[in-house]
Write a structure and sequence with these properties.
The structure is a homodimer of 151-residue chains. The first copy, chain A, is mainly alpha-helical and 151 residues long. Helices cover 59% and strands 5% of the residues of chain A. The structure holds a DNA duplex (30 and 30 nucleotides).
DNA sequence: ATAGGATCTGTAGCGGCTACAGGTTCAAGA
DNA sequence: TCTTGAACCTGTAGCCGCTACAGATCCTAT
């Protein structure tokens, strides 16, 4: 797979076709172009965008990376690595490792929320408390030692 | 705990004190007021906001709910239930159950990402592949049967 | 009286899109 | 060739939940 020089060759897809092929919204494709994530494609005489194989690959890459929740900045970095370098594996791996850590943190945070909520909902279902356990939980005592927000 | 009529009594905290007590940013407090999540407090002669006990309770509620990732709209609904009704438990529980489902979906999505990423990173570390496994994964084959985006 | 911290209003920006409005172009059928 | 109507164009504004200013005013301790 030669992924250097994804600048475009042959097939000329209009934006709608590219959208269908990649599952990416038309508006989003134009947005990616605007922020410089996709290079500006050729145009028809009338000004319609015409995409080639390189764009198809590149947009596929972006979509896949988005499905893994990489930020657009991370994706930009990965694309640069993929296109500019011969041995990008180490650097790419670093980006992924950082991102993996972020994801694991998010999972842990959500699991903490999940357990608080699940437990509270169960207590609600009991019907044993006169007050609503959910609302009671949210109206907890204010911690007087709460620190001020950073800044 | 009488939580009806949280409209304000006695202590007159300026916004900075409320911020320190609740751990909520000053800008955020003003933002909550602007969008109608917190009622406008009394003012000093010079126009500074002065908060009472009710605001302290209400903002504490909001913060706690945000920590559980409730949206501001959900929180609005919960606050209405907490203040306007006698037996809000069933309705409050419904809001929480919906939210719990959302959280569980997010966890599942993140776990799927986590396993793809973790596996890919491990393959990167192997050093057995000539190409970078991470970049290969992202440059996967485009699914020709991909459906167009909704619309 | 004065210094300097706290607060005020208003606006703009973040990420990652999405949704218009109001126009032009393209491709297929008559 | 003409006509339809779908696809496409540009540009702007909105979503969520804040955050970060600028530039003015107020409050309090000395």
């Amino acid at each position: 797979m030669d992924r250097k020089n994804l600048q475009d060759t042959a097939p000329r897809l209009p934006i709608g076709a590219l959208s269908r092929r990649t599952g990416c919204n038309i508006e989003t494709i134009r947005y990616y172009e605007k922020i410089g994530l996709l290079s500006a494609p050729a145009r028809s005489d009338g000004g319609h965008r015409l995409y080639g194989y390189g764009h198809l690959m590149r947009l596929g890459f972006v979509r896949r990376a988005r499905e893994l929740d990489f930020t657009l900045d991370e994706i930009r970095a990965l694309l640069r690595l993929a296109e500019d370098r011969d041995r990008p594996c180490t650097e790419a791996r670093e980006v992924a490792v950082v991102h993996l850590t972020d994801i694991r943190t998010k999972i842990a945070d959500l699991q903490a929320m999940e357990s608080v909520l699940a437990e509270t909902v169960v207590r609600c279902a009991d019907g044993k408390t006169p007050e609503c356990p959910l609302l009671e939980t949210l109206f907890g005592s204010i911690d007087p030692s709460a620190r001020p927000p950073a800044g």
